[in-house]
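We give the entry.
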Amino acid sequence: MSDAAFHELFPLGADDTPYRKLTGDFVSPASFEGERVVKIAPDALTLLARQAFVDCQHLLRPGHLAQLRTILDDPGASANDKFVALDLLKNANIAAGKVLPMCQDTGTAIVMAKKGQQVWTGADDAAAISEGIRRTYTETNLRYSQVAPLSMYEEVNT
């Protein structure tokens, strides 16, 4: 008998992130063989992916903003530390207007999505999520290119 046990690859810690409900329009409870399941329309995944990418490109979490703010009051922080923290806060303020993103290099979309076995979409989840990301890049000011190195000292936008 093995003493090996299953361990979560990335165990989660406490989550104090403030969340908001986008809509309840695409979600409905159902039952299958006496078990409760949640049915989610593919449009919900598209909406969620789009909004998540808009938020990721334009907003910092309140806890992150608070950490930057504490640097300004920290007597141990250098003038450079304070300059960088203040510049990041100014940038966050501009980006929160959701016109210009936090960073101009927004060309890679990487998504990891998980759902439980009691969550049913009845569709191609990857396609629905990809559509939300496509909409974000085509309907907002996100740059969907990257800087590609040509040599050690030369690069171009893709």
User: Anything to note?
Assistant: The radius of gyration is 21 Å. The first helix runs from residue 42 to 58. The chain is about 40% helix and 15% strand.
